[in-house]
Structures are given as C-alpha cells and as structure tokens.
Amino acid sequence: MALTIALAGDTMLGRMVGEALGKVPPESLVATPVVEAAGRADTFFLNLECCISTRGSPWPEPGKPFFFRAPPAAVETLNHLGVSCVTLANNHALDFGYEALVDTFEHLSAAGIEWVGAGPDIDRARAVVRLDTGGLEVSVLALTDHPASFAATSDRPGVAYADLRLGVPAWVTDAVRSTAGALLLSPHWGPNMTPGPVPHVSKAARVLVEAGATVVAGHSAHVFHGVSGRVLYDLGDFLDDYAVDPELRNDLGLLWLVTMDGEGPRRLEALPLKLEYCRTELAQGDDADWIRRRFRSACAALGTEVKEESGFLVVELG
Q1: How far apart are CA 280 and CA 269, in angstroms?
Q2: CA–CA distances in Å: residue 95 to residues 26, 42, 130, 204, 276
Q3: Which are the contacts of 196, defined by CB distance < 8 A and separation ≥ 6?
Q4: Which of 181, 11, 157 lies closest to 83 in space, CA to CA?
Q5: What is the spatial distance between Cα 301 and Cα 66, in angstroms, rounded to a whole number?
Q6: Torsion over CA of 44, 115, 181 and 198, rounded to 10 degrees?
Q7: Most buried residue, 26, 58, 100, 156, by most Cβ within 10 Å?
Q8: Which H or E run includes 272?
Q9: DSSP letters along 219-250, please?
Q10: In terms of Cα–Cα distance, which of 317, 255, 292 is closest to 46?
Q11: CB 145 within 8 A of CB 165
C-alpha cells in the first residue's frame, strides 16, 4: 500500500501575514493551484513557525529580533490547505510566552489539526504522533536544535530540544527505533540562510537514517536544500512576509510530495513556488527556471539525479 505526504517548510502566519488575515479571506493566502497540488496527497504536514494566540508578551531574551504570533483565523488557512499535522519544534513557538503556546495547542486541537514537537511538558513535546491516514501507518517525530531556552521541562511548556552539535541524543534514536510503521522525522536544524547542510546537520541525518527514520524532512535555513536518499535536508519557506535575499532567494520555494510504501520512500515530486508578500503562488518563467537550476545543482552535490515531469521536479527514491 502506498501513501503520499505533502510537506511544506517554514510557514509563518504572524506579523504582516497575520494583519492580512484580518483583511482578506484566510483561504486567499495560497493560490488555488498550490492548494490543488497539495490535495493530491493523503496527508499534509508543515512547520508552523509561529504561535496562534491573542495573548502573551514577547519572549524576554536579549537580542531576539523577531516575534511571530498569528491570529486564531490562521487555523482556517491551515484547514483550507488540508493540513493534518504541524510541527511546533522551532525557534518561534514561544515567541509570546507559555500562555500563547498553550493557546496554540488549543486552537489546533479545536480545528482538528495534530501537532508534534512541543507540549505542556517534556513528555508530550517529545512524543511521537500517529497520523490518521486511513492507510499506511505513519507517525511523526519532531525536534529543534535551537534555542535551548525554549526547551520543555517536566513542569513547563516548550519544545522538543536537542543540541545536535553534540550529537543526536538517545531519546531521539530510541523513539525512532521503537516506532512501528513509517516514521517522518522533522528536525528544525542548522542556521538560517545557508545554501546547503552544515556539518552537524549532515552528521545528524546519517544517524537518524541509520536508526530507522523512513523520511527525514528538515527546515530552518529558509531556503530549500538538496535531497540525499531518505533525507530532505531543508524544505525551505512556504508562506511569510520576509525580506528577500537577492542571492539565496528565500522568496522561491517548493511544495514537496513524497510517496512511500511499507518499505520506505519511493518517489519525490517538488512543485516550484513563488512567495509573494503574504501570499504563495506557483512560480513562473524566470523564477521557475531559477528553482529548477538551484534544485538540480543542490541535489547533484549530494549525488542525486533530478528529472522533470509536468512541471514537477522528480527524484526517484527507491
């Protein structure tokens, strides 16, 4: 039995995107062709890089430059996209403190959306979450390697934190080995705005695959990276209001569709995207050509061949 998972990277629904949600319909933030492409999948998973709340105060950490909080209407955007699960294991989950993170859990639950990588305590934050796909058994585990101050404890909400520069901790590899069926592992790892995986990320990826992760789908760089076997090093950005780097082009991204069966991932299809200001559309013309060149080059550096079929960039995984 085969199953297809749609994957998207950093999805930020706060700041100016949150203001847009007060002026336009929630379903208007992503163009219809992108939504339809995601609808080809059996389930949709993304990195929600904000809290969802109307409460809280900015996290009191000196030097922290950005704080992302989305309004409750953000869940309508997620539902319109068909998102079934999000990871909150990232460096913005606690941007507005503990009460805003707890509100996020409640808003997602009320909308029927699962979350992973954060929780009211460390056990829930580190928990593996089973997805209701109606077919192949698939679970998700998520973690972030920054910041340490966001880590959940036995009596404090927070994220599933692991300092991957020191190696992959036992709680992660133990969870991977003990999970039955397919496992999607979603790490928020490495620094922003890097063209490819940094050494500690590459090392961690090898450990996670050896432990038995079916697919490793990372994020954090804000730009997409290449693919190597079961590892999608960085999914890039999906929706935001960020300033554009003229060289790394964080305004150009990918929607990822991974098809797997009981033996592992079989095929990857990646759809080129253009991130306009607070809206995501299909990439066209020169933008689409840039994405194709960049993705082919990034994959070639990892020994991976990329084909093109009907506007999708395709990698055969098995």
Answers
A1: 18
A2: 22, 31, 27, 26, 24
A3: 225, 226, 233, 298, 301
A4: 11
A5: 33
A6: 80
A7: 100
A8: strand 264-276
A9: B-SSSB--EETTEE--B-EEE--PPPPTTT-T
A10: 255
A11: yes
The DSSP element (H or E) to which 285 belongs, if any, is helix 285-300
Q: Measuring CA to CA, which residue among 238, 248, 257 is closest to residue 312?
A: 257
Alpha carbon distance 111, 108 (integer Å): 5
Q: What is the DSSP letter of 73?
A: T
Which single residue is written with the structure tokens 């993170």?
101
- Quote the DSSP letter at residue 143: E
Q: Report the distance separating Cα 171 and Cα 122, nearest Å.
A: 11
> Average of pLDDT values for 37-55?
97
- List the beta strands (DSSP E) in 132-219: 138-144, 158-159, 182-188, 215-217
Are 73 and 124 in contact, with CB atoms under 8 Å apart? no
Beta bridge partners of 216: 185, 231
Closest CA to 224 of 189, 263, 191, 250: 250
Could you say which DSSP state residue 166 is in?
A: G
> Which residues on adjacent β-strands are paired with residue 3?
260
Indicate yes or no: pTM above 0.90: yes
pLDDT in tens, 130-147: 998 877 889 999 999 999
Residue environment code for 240-275, b if the CB has 16+ CB neighbours within 10 A, otherwise e: bbbeeeeebbbbbbbbbbbbbeeeebeebbbbbbbb
Q: Which two tokens stand for residue 92?
A: 């913005």
77-98 burial code (b ≥16 CB/10 A, e <16): bbeebebbbbbbbbbbbbbbbe
24/310 Cα distance (integer angstroms): 31
Query: Rounded distance, CA 48 to CA 34, Å?
Result: 17
